[in-house]
Amino acid sequence: MCIRDSIDTLISAYDRMEALGFYNSADDLSRGYLLLQAKKPLREKADKFFQSGIKATGAATDEWYISYAYYNAITIYGALAADKKPAFKKRMIEDYFWYSKLVTEGNMSVRTQETLTSYLNSVVQSCDDLTPEIAGFIANLPTEMEAAKSAVNNMMTLMEDKGCTLSLIHISEPTRLLSISYAVFCLKKKKKITIPLRHVLTMSI
Q: Using an 8 Å Cβ cutoff, are 138 and 152 in contact?
């Protein structure tokens, strides 16, 4: 029996156990990985397991799972029909910011962040792809000061690489009572964006 036969047998065992009501979410990441090692990789099914597993594990996720999950999603994107790609591209950008946040919070390697960015570059070609996602990125900034600064700097670098002319004016703390901060991005030839945050930050970059 070859190794892929063994993997297919294990996948079937997981499926039978789940059908009997013995699903264990702690196995999600392992199951996602196994599904990609099968004789006929089940990428969409693996994607669902990776998404739920990473969401449950957060910054404690083994970083290679994050790289592998994103690579799998990029591969799915490449096989989609043209009319399905815009919505999935939006998800890829959202996932990039989500995973990048986990990389920062989990003190993961620079190589993992570089890998994510490399994969994103195969999907995102211009500034116009990124600007609609600024609000979501800002709303999910880490609450820890240095992690937030790192995330913002990564975002600025990414946008500049895509041809955006971007300057972050400030992330400031206008009031402690409301615990709301504002990030102001100025994009030449684009509308100024002011976004309220649920973070208490004071920084100047």
A: no
